[in-house]
Structures are given as structure tokens and as C-alpha cells.
Write a structure and sequence with these properties.
This protein is mainly α. It has one domain. It is built from 9 helices and no strands. Helix 4 packs across helix 5. 7% of the residues are buried.
């Protein structure tokens, strides 16, 4: 039965070719600049509210905590300020997204030794992000097998419905 379910729910991984296929974001953002120059850590901008299942996208007000003074005259920061002042979310284009039929906990994975880079690649080295790691079911199962984690279907899928 598990083999059938694995085959049924398998998703074909689609990977971008590289930086040239990175989506255009509403405000240019370099993870490389923010991690290498400003020495920010992932969780300083991507908060994990209780119970820790999800990591959030930073709010414009979070960005503006630094950008009140840093590059404040830049047109991109002026756009950021408009989002912040109007309390609107920045409409970032998602790069990684887990399907709705999959349960995933960032907290559990981080607590068990995975890093942000495990699933998202070397984000801190990127000026623009593209999907460069395999977050398909096959990729997740392969990672679980390599790390001797359970591959029981019910771990990630609600089989009751």
C-alpha cells in the first residue's frame, strides 16, 4: 500500500536553470548582501511564530528597522517604506512552496539538525533566489532515507481523509 501511495503522490521536481530564471521580485533583495555584509541570520528576518510550523516572510516594518537609515534614499527602499507605511505585505514571488496536502514543520526539522540550507540551498550566497533544491516528495523521501528519518506516509500526509 505504501508503495502505491508513494507513486500516487509523487511530484515531478521542476528546477530552475540558475540565476537567470530567478523570479523578479517586487523589491530587489540580496540574501548575500544581508548575510555577508550585515551578518544577519535567517531567523532575524524569517520569524517562526508558535508553534513553529512555518517560517514567515519578513514584514516591511522589519526591513525598515534597519533601512530607516541604511540606503534610505534608494528608490527601492522608498518603495519598501510605502509598503511599511501603508501596512501592506510585500507581494514577494514564492520560490519554495509545500503543497497544501503536505504537513511540514520547520521547527521539527531545525530541532533535528536540518539547516535552512538543507531545503533552500546556499541562500546566503545568492543575490537572487531560484529553486535549486528538490522539495518534491522524492527529494524529501531521499533526504529522510539518507538521514535515517521515518518515511511513513502518515508523517507528512493526513491519511484519515
Amino acid at each position: 500500500m505504501r508503495i502505491c501511495l508513494l507513486a500516487l503522490f509523487s511530484v515531478v521536481a521542476v528546477f530552475a536553470e540558475g540565476p537567470s530564471t530567478a523570479p523578479i521580485q517586487p523589491i530587489p533583495f540580496s540574501h548575500k548582501e544581508h548575510t555577508a555584509t550585515a551578518h544577519l541570520k535567517c531567523n532575524e528576518c524569517h520569524k517562526m511564530p508558535d508553534p513553529g510550523e512555518i517560517e514567515t516572510m519578513p514584514k516591511a516594518k522589519t526591513c525598515m528597522a534597519c533601512h530607516q537609515t541604511i540606503k534610505a534614499d534608494s528608490s527601492d527602499i522608498k518603495n519598501l517604506r510605502e509598503y511599511s507605511n501603508s501596512n501592506r505585505p510585500i507581494p514577494w514571488v514564492r520560490v519554495y512552496e509545500i503543497p497544501g496536502f503536505v504537513s511540514f514543520s520547520h521547527k521539527i526539522h531545525l530541532d533535528r539538525g536540518a539547516s535552512c540550507q538543507t531545503c533552500h540551498g546556499p541562500v546566503g550566497e545568492r543575490d537572487r533566489l531560484w529553486r535549486e533544491t528538490d522539495i518534491s516528495m522524492g527529494g524529501c523521501v531521499a533526504c529522510h532515507q539518507a538521514n535515517k528519518a521515518s518515511v511513513d506516509c502518515g508523517l507528512c500526509h493526513d491519511l484519515q481523509h
